[in-house]
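Curious: why this fold?
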Amino acid sequence: METSYVSFPGLGIYSLPVERVAFSFNIGDREINIYWYGIIIAMAFLVCFLLAVKQAPKYGIKSDHIVDTFLWVMIFAIIGARLYYVIFSWDEFSDNLIKIFQTRHGGLAFYGGLIGGIIAVILTAKTKKIKLINLIDFLAVYVPLGHAIGRWGNFFNQEAFGTNTDLPWGMYSEQTYRYLAQYGNQYAPLSPVHPTFLYESIANILIFVILYQIRKNSKKSGETAAWYFILYGLVRFGIEGLRTDSLFIGNTNIRVSQALSLLFVLFGIVTLVFITRRAKTKKLTAAGENDDSDISAEITSDFVPLQKISSSMEDNIADKTSDN
């Protein structure tokens, strides 16, 4: 077993054993390790899948369509997450391409998985002839929930931590020491670091609760998804600034995730403005049509008595003519 010991000195917690390997079994002479990282990612998918299947009919979506969507999302998300990491860490893989397929030590980037998942949803909506915006709106709620669960895989792998901190919940382990030591005097390897995976997990739970309420009460298509882009973009931008393992754009100091986070926020705001304006336009149009109907009804109601008066006058004239 691969055991690491994690301490939270400010909380009085020392040498907490954390096993990376959940269990092992042998196939012939070869030992196969099953890591907590993979189990937790699978659990995240399963929880979101079960909730989505249960709630789909309430939103006019067939449960069978959710099953198909999740199957493709799972495949595309894993491929996207790995490709994203490999592309922005190419120096790590250029001399040994086989390492691209070795994911048991991590190396899955969330943004890549999200992009892959969105592509899968688009393809599913097209093939199943489902209204895309409705499907994305429905599924957006489960993304932060799955993400909140999945972040604990980083804890078992002892990765995705931040810079040094004096806060009570600062974390220290052999992995944080080894990682920070390679940067020389830039960090203090023996000091606790921000458990940024925990920050993001908590933030994602809050986003899930907010989105759940928005989806429940909103009557505007696309509003739930727009708020996800805004809320997660803001959260990730802030937390990414604390991390020590960020991926960068080329040789610049621009963090890929922060750049994408800004694009997410901008996209969400633009989408929200568009949705709000479209809703107001529809409301004004409907009000205008109602006003026209009322005016027409008034004219008709005024015209009916005039018809009766005209008809009465014609009858009187006819009677007088017959008398003569």
